[in-house]
Amino acid sequence: MAWVESLQRAIDYMEDHLSEDITIEEIAKQAHSSPFHFQRTFTLLTDITIGDYLRRRRLSLAAKELTGTDTKIIDLACKYGYDTPEAFSKAFRKQHGVTPTEARKGIGKLQFYNRLVIQVSLKGAEPVKYHIVEREAFQVVGVKRAFSCENGQNLEGIPKMWQEVHQNGVNDLLFRVNSGQIKGVLGVCVDQSAVRPEEMDYWIATECDQEVPEGLEKLDIPASKWAVFEVRGPMPDAMQSAWKRIFSEWFPSSGYEYTGTAELEVYTDEDPSSPDLYSEIWIPVK
Prior knowledge:
The protein is of the alpha+beta class. Helix content is about 40%, strand content about 20%. The longest helix has 19 residues, at about 50-70.
């Protein structure tokens, strides 16, 4: 449960510094995690980004002070990180549906978001199917793109990248040059936050033990122990559900730890809408 405790420690840190300008690097440090991995895990478990959480909590506390004290609106704007009363008013209205002035007069209903408390659910009724694989280093080839993890920009950009490779023929090419142990096309997440803060490289690739085909790039995957999870069901819901169960149920109880190297999603050429579609998630562990 050390992983859960680390995550809660990071959340508590955010709560203790809501009126300060804190960075994702400082938050992730509390969980002994890279900014990329912490943001990815946080979003998987909560369905919101860290930026969204901070904004919701700050505006919730601002609403509480606004209706319970005589603090000036301009002072609340400054306290909760807004440069001008106008920017504060705009964000306040977006969350609460009323302006700060209207809220102070008792007009409308405010939306208050409580602080997060991590509670692990060890259900066990529906098993998480996985096996452990140890592999030497191998090569994948494909196309890559850098994405910012800030405010979930990667969550918007990656689906668009998949649409492009299906339209421009790259997806078909990858299936043709697939010649490794892993059969299918891969979505590969590579943490780059150590050299490019809050950034990741995303590859759409395939395992290939031959020369790099023209128009593609090469990525070397290091030797690792992998937890390989079975995913059943239509995309993208089945994949998203599997990721959430892995981090909310499997990791807290398995005894394994995430090692921080590349993560793989394995897709076949079957009908992506099929309820029996088989896919995999490969996570490097120790």
